[in-house]
């Protein structure tokens, strides 16, 4: 039995041709975090069903791009409405895996090229921020490709000295609304894991400063 997910809302299309919606946090003195994600972030943005915990140490913003792969994400970065942030969490890649139709032997090489190009665009858009890579969430029927893609992301993260976040919520049916999308229950757990992971990084960064 699959979990419940509040009915998705259709968004206007951005420069990439993909649907795009934003959640902008008001400055409140906390570190500013932007989650750059695909449709799994829908119910963090519009409709807002799941919220960060009140005790989290960052002001939470999100850019939701349903159906977007990293190429589309790179195009959207050119018109991002977030002038300055401290942390960028990249949670794309699900659609890169789901839509890949090239030779199986070229998957890892292609994934590496796409991800590196995307990170370069991120650094151009936000030269003073810290980037955090999130592992791609599991997909029913594509476990091996997801595994390969996450190995690639791990290599890139290690080479670039970028934190790699594991936000996998587990395989319980109530956490998923279908084979790609988190249910509202799953998304709540996802946000808790994101909160804990980023808080540790913020605390570590602040310790280095002092």
Topology:
Blueprint: E1 21-23, E2 31-37, H1 42-45, E3 58-64, H2 70-77, E4 87-91, H3 94-98, H4 107-125, E5 130-134, H5 143-160, E6 164-165, H6 184-209
Parallel strand pairs: 2-3, 2-4, 4-5, 5-6
Antiparallel strand pairs: 1-3
Helix pairs in contact: 2-4, 4-5
**Lateral strand order in the biggest sheet:** 1-3-2-4-5-6
User: What is the assigned CATH homologous superfamily?
Assistant: SGNH hydrolase
Q: Classify the helix fraction into a percent range.
A: 25-40%
Radius of gyration: 16 Å
Please report the number of helical segments.
6
The CATH topology is Rossmann fold
Structural class: alpha/beta
The mean pLDDT is 93
Question: Largest sheet, if any?
Answer: 6 strands, mixed
User: β content, as a range?
Assistant: 5-15%
SSE string, helices as H and strands as E: EEHEHEHHEHEH
Domain module tally: 1
What is the CATH architecture assignment? 3-Layer(aba) Sandwich
Distance between the termini: 50 Å
Shape: globular
Report on this model:
The chain has 210 residues and is α/β, with parallel strands linked by helices. The protein has one domain: Rossmann fold (3-Layer(aba) Sandwich). Helix content is 38%, strand content 14%. It has helices at residues 42-45, 70-77, 94-98, 107-125, 143-160, 184-209, and strands at 21-23, 31-37, 58-64, 87-91, 130-134, 164-165. Helix 2 (70-77) packs parallel to helix 4 and helix 4 packs across helix 5. The longest helix has 26 residues, at 184-209. The relative contact order is 0.18.
Brief write-up:
With 210 residues, the protein is α/β, with parallel strands linked by helices.
